[in-house]
Specification:
With 182 residues, this protein is an alpha/beta fold. Helix content is 19%, strand content 24%. The structure holds S-adenosylmethionine.
């Protein structure tokens, strides 16, 4: 249906060509009947040049902490970083995906109570996000050490279901203080 480009910001430096800091995500469905909850994956963006009509904000909201607009997501995702070492979700897995990234996919393409399958689970991100968002999960991972990290993360998720960058059922743009209240 779509090719999504995720600009993951950090990339392996290269002196002979442009460093690669993007990844493809392919959105595929088995048939023309499928789940796509676009209203569950809206993004809150800061408005830098607010447009007014009749002196009133057009499609944005004025708050004490700035002007914001909630938008439908496109297939270019530039609001999500890889899990940096300082982030609570970070493990030592070499290719760990951010919870915020998986949360977008899970929220858009499934409903509460559905089963999410990840046959290459790694550090467990997909199962952890599924649990945090009220889905069931099946994860397969060949490396026992990574599977142990998953178990640990799943246990922590029982008491902390927060997902960095996703709050009040909205995805916050990168570098926008999440603590800002509307
Ligand atoms: C790209 S990583 C997944 C990272 C994961 N999304 C995360 O956030 O941590 C792919 C994982 O698949 C596992 N893997 C590769 N081949 C496998 C296989 N045949 N069966 C089970 N796991 C496999 C690797 O050990 C690796 O941890």
């Amino acid at each position: 249906k779509n090719r999504i480009t995720w600009q993951r910001e950090k990339g392996r430096g290269s002196r002979s060509n442009w460093k690669n800091s993007m990844e493809d995500i392919w959105f595929c469905t088995k048939s023309d009947t499928y789940t796509f909850n676009v209203d569950h994956v809206k993004m809150r963006k800061k408005v830098w040049a607010p447009y007014t009509k009749g002196g009133k904000p057009k499609d944005w909201e004025q708050t004490k902490t700035g002007n914001f607009r909630d938008t439908y997501p496109s297939n270019f995702w530039n609001d999500i970083t890889i899990p940096f070492w300082s982030m609570a979700e970070n493990t030592a897995h070499p290719t760990q995906k951010p919870e915020k990234l998986i949360a977008k996919l899970v929220l858009a393409s499934s409903n509460k109570g559905d089963i999410i399958l990840d046959p290459f689970l790694g550090s467990g991100t997909t199962s952890v996000v599924a649990q945090k968002l009220g889905r069931n999960y099946i994860g397969i991972e060949q490396n026992e050490r990574y599977a142990t990290w998953t178990e640990k993360r799943l246990e922590s998720a029982l008491t902390d279901s927060s997902i960095q960058g996703y709050r009040q059922q909205i995805f916050w743009d990168r570098n926008v203080q999440e603590t800002q209240k509307r």
